[in-house]
Design brief:
It contains six helices and twelve strands. The chain has a single domain (about 1-230), classed as 4-Layer Sandwich (Purple Acid Phosphatase, chain A, domain 2). The strands form three sheets. It has a five-stranded mixed sheet with strand order 3-2-1-10-11. It has a five-stranded mixed sheet with strand order 4-5-7-9-8, with no helix packed on it. It has helices at about 15-25, 45-55, 60-70, 75-90, 90-100, 195-205, and strands spanning about 1-5, 30-35, 55-60, 105, 110-115, 125-130, 140, 150-155, 160, 175-180, 185-190, 230. Helix content is about 25%, strand content about 25%. By secondary structure, it is α/β, with parallel strands linked by helices. The N and C termini lie far apart (about 35 Å). The longest helix is centred in the middle third of the chain and has 13 residues, at about 75-90.
Length: about 230
């Protein structure tokens, strides 16, 4: 039996559906979501409902916290415009689901967080230190938040993994990203999806191409490509 690891769905229902359709050919017994189910794209209630229906273990991401606690993003005008829309459409089921989520999840020697080992919700990992898990009880750490898919071997046979983003990849590959754990092996996967559904909905509710055409390129809004590197 295998575990599906997903992250940063960001209200992109077509991407989530494509990932689940692809992943469930691998005898999946458990789904772990590393947060940010909400944010950016408009299908937040539908994404939560789908995760709920498959009994996913979901961790809070920073965008989920913004919505749950009626906060604003401290560093993006665009995010706040999108967030204002989501605050208008969010339903009680979505809020109750998010309120039930924790900031991290531990399974045996695996740690699952949205951000980093030092800051579960908001930490961003762009540089991975070889001794990141040295001295800890964890053999593997799985993080989201940066939307960059990678798997990096660490000191003492430990592993850092970011499954990448389902709903808004930023590593130059526009395909939805996910990871599958089978026994001691972690495999990274990508799958294409129908982006026009997102584009049409975003246009209908009044957002211009700037907020969604980055999905064609696999970048941040604005066109920047991110990466994660290993450092000494």
């Amino acid at each position: 039996m295998s575990k599906l690891i997903i992250s940063d769905i960001h209200g992109n229902l077509p991407a989530l559906e494509a990932v689940l359709n692809s992943a469930y050919t691998n005898d999946i017994s458990e789904v772990i979501c590393l947060g940010d189910v909400t944010g950016y794209y408009p299908f937040i209630n539908e994404c939560i409902k789908l995760l709920e229906s498959i009994h996913a273990k979901t961790i809070l991401g920073n965008h989920d916290v913004y919505l749950l606690k009626n906060q604003s993003c401290p560093n993006s005008i665009t995010v706040n415009k999108l967030l204002d829309y989501q605050k208008k459409i969010v339903n009680d089921n979505t809020l109750n689901y998010l309120a039930s989520c924790d900031t991290h999840f531990i399974s045996k020697q695996d740690l699952f967080v949205h951000g980093s080992i030092d800051n579960y919700t908001d930490g961003r990992v762009y540089e991975v230190k070889d001794d990141m898990l040295s001295g800890s009880k964890y053999s593997r750490i799985f993080v989201g938040h940066t939307h960059v898919q990678c798997q990096i071997a660490l000191k003492d046979n430990k592993v850092f993994c970011n499954p990448g983003s389902v709903g808004q990849p930023r590593d130059g590959n526009p395909h939805a990203a996910f990871a599958i754990i089978k026994s001691d092996h972690v495999a990274l996967h990508r799958v294409d999806y129908t982006k026009n559904i997102v584009y049409k909905k975003m246009s209908e509710i009044g957002f211009d191409e700037y907020t969604y055409k980055n999905l064609e390129l696999g970048t941040r809004i604005g066109g920047k490509v991110d990466n994660i590197v290993k450092v000494l």
